[in-house]
Design a protein that fits this description.
heterodimer; A: about 270 residues; alpha+beta; Alpha-Beta Plaits; three-stranded mixed sheet; globular; B: about 325 residues; mainly alpha; Formate dehydrogenase/DMSO reductase fold; about 0% strand; binds iron/sulfur cluster
Chain lengths: ~270, ~325
């Protein structure tokens, strides 16, 4: 049933610490590994050993640089090296912060990916808020992936159904695993402890407390999806006002499919 | 968004078919003078059914499991796609009913209620299709009040243009000035509204900044330093589609030229030719469809999904 539950007893989710994530992709790889063989696998790959491999992953790690908000608070940085000062500034002439950003399903409270589903294959569990896909009902219309702002759903071309992070529902309740292993695979694999799993409905849970202390952020709250997962921002360095980046129209012709590349050439004349 | 051929074919073909149905539902029971030619009704109705079926088949081709398509009728309480599916299936009932009347299997008086029922059902189906897109918060270009009237207008316009070659074939002596003017007006209004929508898109600044998208709304500018994957993924293929604006402008201009100028001009010529079979009506229909097809391609290609924010190198 694609109507959302009005209330979920628990709100299970992940708390991801952007301050200590080192961008090693361990969580992404172990997620692929576990889920390929777990209850929700396989996560099919097309052309896995070929020139253009494409495959289903539930978790992806992006790497970004972030400028400090105000240049004044961040003087031109330099590092002494012998008697020379080596500038450390980034493209904007300021010290940039590199930041690694793991992206997976946020198990939203107002998950439009569920309500748009025409078949009832996508659903949100009333007991713990986990959003799942029933592969036996999914017709592969892909509308749910259009409705997700966070790119959390990836379509399996081989099986013709939609797939997504299950919050490792086949681990967290799996009593055949040792108690300490009843956690999402990505949480266990993270070498820096940047991922925590827990119940955000319980204000005393470790994730709720940590999120409160460190001002855990919900992504794109203005869209109204009310994601459960929270991201902990880097610990304060030099804060300030935002500067909104502008859109660029540049496209890389090499990245276009061949028909469009041809169109690009013809129209560019 | 990736302009998938199956989705464009689905919306334009079924749109044309439903547009025809809307017109037929009104014309067949209520049109009096001059009397409609006897062959016209059922031929136009069959054409509408063929277009709608072709569109629906194209949409099935988009599915990973077309054999389970029946399941899509179950979630009408929340899903516009499901509602669209139900409306589309329901539409066959009044459409086949009208066809039965026209072929003499049902009393002619039934047209007076089957006709309006068909028009309303076809219009509702088109509006449900439009709502699939208009309801997505993830694509700011589609969260626009013009999306609904545009889908309805393009359906009506393509239906009006398609009526003409059928009318001309069924009664070569009819001048067809009135229906030509109607088709011209529908095309003009539709493309004018679409032009306005594109103007609005150009000024639309609904894109979240990358810094906000990663939960650092107070930070400075964020840039892609390294992608999450070296090759394409489903998300980049399906959602992160960029088409340079100058090409899009050229394409939209072509759509206007074909769909409004050429189609309108051909209708003008053909309706002023007096009598006989006039090839201009058929050519106008082809031009109008080509223009609407290009317009629909751009409706997808120029729509920017929020998730692109995580990927685009600036
Ligand atoms: S992150 Fe996307 S897929 Fe996950 S619940 Fe939210 S909208 Fe749905
Ligand atoms: S792809 Fe599957 S899960 Fe997603 S909306 Fe369609 S039927 Fe539902
Ligand atoms: S919770 Fe499990 S399925 Fe979700 S990202 Fe982590 S490892 Fe992958």
């Amino acid at each position: 049933m694609t109507a959302l539950p009005t209330h979920t007893t628990k709100k299970l989710g992940l708390l991801i610490d952007l301050d200590i994530c080192v961008g090693c992709h361990a969580c992404a790889v172990v997620c692929k590994e576990w889920n390929d063989g777990g209850q929700f696998g396989p996560l099919s790959d097309e052309d896995p050993m070929g020139a253009k491999p494409v495959g289903v992953w539930f978790n992806r790690v992006h790497s970004y640089t972030v400028d400090p908000a105000t240049p004044a608070e961040s003087p031109e940085p330099a590092r002494a090296c012998g008697d020379k000062a080596i500038p450390l500034s980034g493209p904007a002439g300021r010290l940039g912060l590199s930041l690694h950003f793991p992206r997976s399903c946020l198990h939203c409270e107002h998950a439009a990916c569920v309500t748009v589903c025409p078949t009832g294959a996508s659903y949100k569990r009333a007991e713990d808020g986990i959003v799942l896909v029933d592969y036996d009902k999914c017709i592969g219309c892909k509308l749910c992936s259009w409705a997700c702002p966070y790119g959390a759903r990836e379509y399996d071309e081989v099986q013709g159904v939609m797939k997504k992070c299950t919050l490792c529902v086949d681990r967290i309740y799996n009593t055949t695993l040792a108690k300490e292993d009843q956690q999402p695979a990505c949480v266990l694999a993270c070498p820096t402890g940047a991922r925590m799993f827990g119940d955000f409905a319980d204000p005393d849970s470790a994730v709720s407390q940590r999120s409160r202390e460190r001002e855990g952020q919900a992504l794109l709250p203005e869209l109204g999806y009310a994601p459960t997962n929270r991201y902990l921002p880097p610990r304060p360095r030099r804060d300030g006002a935002a500067s909104a980046p502008k859109n660029s129209e540049a496209i890389d012709a090499q990245e276009l499919p061949s028909v469009l590349r041809w169109l690009d050439r013809v129209l560019s004349r | 968004m990736n302009p998938a051929l199956s989705v464009i074919a689905f919306t334009t073909l079924s749109g044309a078919g439903y547009g025809l149905m809307i017109w037929l539902g009104i014309l067949l029971p209520f049109h009096r003078q001059p009397p409609l030619p006897p062959q016209f009704g059922w031929v136009a109705m069959v054409l509408a059914l063929v277009l709608v079926s072709a569109g629906l088949l194209a949409s099935l081709a988009h599915l990973g499991h077309p054999e389970r398509a029946w399941r899509a009728l179950s979630q009408w309480r929340t899903s516009w796609l499901s509602r669209e599916g139900i409306a589309a299936v329901w539409c066959f009932v009044p459409a086949l009913g009208v066809l039965a009347v026209l072929l003499g299997y049902a009393p002619i008086t039934w047209l007076s209620w089957l006709g309006p029922l068909l028009s309303v059902s076809a219009l509702v189906t088109v509006l449900c299709t439009a709502m699939i897109y208009a309801s997505l918060k993830t694509v700011p270009q589609w969260r626009d009040w013009r999306v609904l009237p545009l889908y309805a207008l393009f359906a009506l316009a393509s239906g009006a243009v398609l009526l003409l070659p059928v009318l001309n074939w069924a009664a070569p002596d009819l001048a067809l000035n009135m229906p030509s003017t109607t088709a011209q007006a529908a095309l003009l209004i539709a493309f004018a509204l679409r032009y306005w929508q594109r103007r609005h898109w150009r000024d639309l600044d609904a894109t979240p900044s990358l810094a906000a998208a990663i939960g650092l709304p107070g930070a400075g500018e964020a840039r892609v330093f390294e992608g999450a994957h070296t090759e394409a993924s489903f998300i980049t293929r399906e959602m992160v589609f960029r088409f340079a604006r100058k090409h899009a402008d050229a394409m939209f201009f072509t759509a206007l030229l074909l769909g409004a100028a050429f189609a309108g001009g051909l209708l003008e010529l053909a309706s002023n030719q007096g009598g006989g079979i006039r090839i201009g009506f058929a050519l106008a229909a082809v031009c109008a469809y080509a223009g609407i097809f290009l317009e629909r391609w751009l409706f997808f290609a120029e729509a920017r999904h929020v998730v692109s924010t995580y990927f685009e190198r600036r």
